[in-house]
Every structure is written in structure tokens, then in C-alpha cells.
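Sample 1 of the test manifest.
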Amino acid sequence: MRDTMMLELRGVSKSFGGIKAITDLSMEVAEGEIVGLIGPNGAGKTTVFNLVTGVYRPDSGEIVFRGESVGGLPPHVIVSKGVARTFQNIRLFNNLSVLDNVKIALHSQPEYGLGAALAGLGKVAIENKRIVAKAREFLDMVGLSDRAKLRAGALPYGLARRLEIARALALNPRLLLLDEPAAGMNPDEIADLKELILKIHKDFNLTIVLIEHRMDLVMATCPRLVVLNFGTKIAEGSPEEIQTNPQVLQAYLGEDY
Amino acid sequence: MGYALGVLTLSCIQGIAALGLAIFTGFTGQFSLGHAAFMGIGAYTAALLTYFAGVPFVIAVVAGALAATVISLVIGVPTLKAKLRSDYFAIAIMGFGEAVRVILENLQITQGARGLPGITRYTNLPVALLALAIMAWLARNFILSKYGWRAIAVREDPVAAEMMGIDLFRTKLLSLGASAFFSGVAGGLLAHYLMFIQPVMFTNVQSTQLIAAVVAGGIGSLTGPVLAAAIFIIIPELLRVANMWRLVIYGLMLILIMVFRPAGLMGYHELSLEWLRGLGRRNRRLTTNA
């Protein structure tokens, strides 16, 4: 084995009723990689994320995260093992403040039990304060600290994406799954997002899988791509290889490209 | 005077039950149409303990609350584990509430539908106020802790909450247990105030009163539901003079609250000087715009 594997899918299939969303998919993500997962709409990219994070249970095949089979475990267990994700249709806690969104991601860190919490012991307040300070650090990192008190639902699109990333980072993941983070962004915002992805990749020693339709972002961040179509892997390789791969061109452009 | 004190005492007791349901509904986002059953379990357990066993009042009330908590976990584990959607869960727990009533009506020791008379009166206004203060303090501590954060996350977006590593089942179960404890305390206090309890006091009517108090009081608020619970006790009493119109006005009141304050009286806020000042400001702005 060349590198330590962060994530391996071995012959994973998943269907919904009669529709095969994913068929016999095998792919590997090595530690420290940024892998782009691309493909036409409905290719099954988000289903892969849902399988890896335990939202769906695979019908067959194995999902291995850091040498441990995690297929079918409940999401909160998989998250606690070091997987974090963002959603295609942003899922923030809209009624809560920007700061509280990140605070909640840190919920497993305060060191007190239920008894101490109910009794309102001093250490509860101290621990909570420590968590708030930590949450602010994450907001600083994505440039949202001046909006900490704002309602998350009131954030403009690009910033909401950033908050979702901050919230995922607060989970202290080893593997970060980004589902179309650039959707709906303008070119300036995409340039900022590119910087952010490369920065957190380096600073947090992360492995990243990125689903994205914006090829400028994919080409700039992902040294390796995996292409899905109709739930199967049709190509894999560097952006240059993918751009000239006839099967990929056919999937995107049709029979007579 | 005694009458007014009595109404206030009942308001405090109802406020404690509303606090409990606020944790479950207002902060965890789960609906229940059966919390009166937990009040009933608390009331009967506490009353039987003081009546037959001569157990001290405070211990009996706590024991009643613990009994309600244990029973809530017994019903909560299978229903919450089955991942019933919130509205289905509300129906399941309503059926459970009916079952509790039927059991209370048929047990020898509870003396069936005739009810249990002759309970010593230990609850008065100071006792009820003190209990309300203690329970409000506990509820506040719970909500401000990491356990409260988890509950709020589940209310706001269960899918996102799960992706934050939050165990939905345990979070909901903890909120259910906590809310049943509050209901149990309220039941115990109620029994030792009225000196007489019967199963019909703890039916859907009471459950609906509680959920109305939480929704009208405001989701995401502790003080709002307490306030609404008190209003729903006090206003019908004041309206006794207009007996025929009582329920009409009561219904109208609910409608008006939902029309003019759709998030409830205090949705996502707590009663504080700061909030009242903010309210004043908002209203002024509204008038200048109009």
C-alpha cells in the first residue's frame, strides 16, 4: 500500500426501490489528498456522501474509514470517528446566531456531567466560556468573527457556506466532505473559497473530498478526480487525463460530441 | 383573598408542568399530547406515599416525579428508537396517556374513577412559588448546558444535528425524561393542594392545555410558557362572571395570540428588562413606519 488510506469504498451498491443510485462503486482516498468527485446531475455523488456519513446504509459492499468498516453505522458515530460534511442545500441552524452554530458543533467537548449542569456548578460556566472562545477562533478562520451575533439565516449565501465549513471544522474531522460548496457563488466568492479550501487542507492536515460542478474550482484544488455517471465510476485520474477521457466527454456532452 | 391565592397557586403548578413541556417541545422540537399522564403518575405516586405510607411531602413529590420519569423512559425508548416522526410520536404518547388513565381508573389502590380523597394539604402559594423558582432554575441550567445545545440543534434541524455528532435518540429521550420529571413534580404539588385527585383530571384536556401554553408562550422560551400557563389559568377564572362566553373568549385569546405573535408571546426570547425595552423600541419603529 502506497499511503495510508483515509477512505475506501469496496464494491458499494445502493438502490432506492427499483432505481440503482450506486452500482458496485470502488474508490480510494489516501490520507492528505484532495479528491474531486464529479459527474453529471443525478450521477450519485451526494449519495456517496450520504453512504459514507451513515445517512444511508449500503445494500452491499464495504465502506472503510481509516481501516475500520463503518458502513451502516449511525451518522453520529461516524462523525465522532472523524468525518464531517457540508450540505448541497446549506443546512445551518438558521434561527440561531452564527456563534451558536459553531458552539453546537463543539457540544462533545465541555467536560461536565448532567448533575453538574443541572446544579449550575461554576465549572459549567467556565467550560462553556472556553467553548465559546474556541468557536470564535473558528469564525476568525473563515472571516466571520464580526458577524458572530448575527442570525445565521440572515447571512448572505457565500458567508453561509463559509459558516457551514467553520461548523464542520469545529468537529475536528480527519476527512471533510464538501458538497458543491461553490454552488450559487460569483467568481470572486469562488476565488476566496479556493483559498479557504487550500488553507484548511494545510492548516488542519485534512483529507478532502469535493463534489463540485464549477470546473475552475475543481481544477485549481484537486490533483485527482473521480468521475461518476449513473452510479458507476467511469474515470479516475488527474484533471488533464479526465479532460481528454472519451467516456467523460460522452457522459457530459452526449453521444455525438 | 383565599380564592385569588388559590388561582395563583394553581398557576404556579401549571407553570412547572409547562416548563417541562417547554424543554421537550419548545427546545427539543418534539410534540406531545400526553404529558398530563406524567402529571397523573406524579400526583398518584406522591399522594399514595403521603396518604398510606406517611412519607414526608417533599420526598413523596420527588418520588412521584422520578416515577413519572421512569415511566416516560419506558414509553420513550420504543417510540423514539422507532424514529417516529414528531407528529406520530405525539399520537403514540396520546394513546399512552389514555392507557394511564384507564389503569388509574381500574386499580384498587387508586380507588378507581371515584378518585382519591383525603390527601393532606401541604401545597400553598409560598410552597408553589418556591417550587416554581427551583424548577425554573433547573430548566435554565439544563438549557444553557451542552445538553440544552444538543436539544436546540435537534429542534432546528435533526439532519444537521446528526452531522454534528449528536445522538438524536439520546437527546430526545433525555428531554422526554426531564419533561416528565417536571410534570411529575407539578402533579405531586397539585394533589397536595386540591386534597383530592381523580383520573379524569389527567386526560387529553390537560395535555392540550399544556401544549397550548407552550406554543402560545413561545417556542424556544422558558418564561413564555410559564406566563401563558398562568394566563390560561387566570383568565378563565376572571371570566366566570361571563360564564356563557368563557370558552369563546378563551378560544379567541388563543387565536389572537397566534395571529399577532405567531412565534408565541415570547418566541425565542426570555422575559427580561432588556427584552421589554427591545419590545418598546420595536413598537415605536412600527408606529413611525405606519
